[in-house]
Here is the input.
Amino acid sequence: MAISPPTPHETEETSRFLQAMWQFNRALGQELQPLLQDAHDTDPRSFMLLKTIESGLTYPKVIAQELKLPPTLLSRYLDDLSKRGLLERHIDEQDSRRTRLSLTPAGEALLQATQCTVHTHVARRLARLRPEQLRALNDALHALNSGEEQA
Here is the structure.
């Protein structure tokens, strides 16, 4: 099936979307990095990893897929969290070739404190949207991240 080239309008809207996503991600990261460092001696990356493990994704391979991280990079991040006493590695009881991750009490405490800071900060930005806009934005982003190609 041949894909037709985008129209000028589609090209313009795609460019606007890419620029807006880039600017939003950069601005949010630049705001959260020092905020989390100063308040909790951590960073957004650690927050997302701890949050992902807390959500029930406890196998490194699954986490790498979910967060779109190369396994070698994820391994370094997990080593850092382990050295900081925030997570533990366990041999999977069902398959001794697999490693399962869990948060330590210190990891859980850091996650809760960091989550409060992140949610408070991000909520201020999201408050600029009406509730129906926020729902539509969340629905759209989930659709874009679903990985399913629309014909």
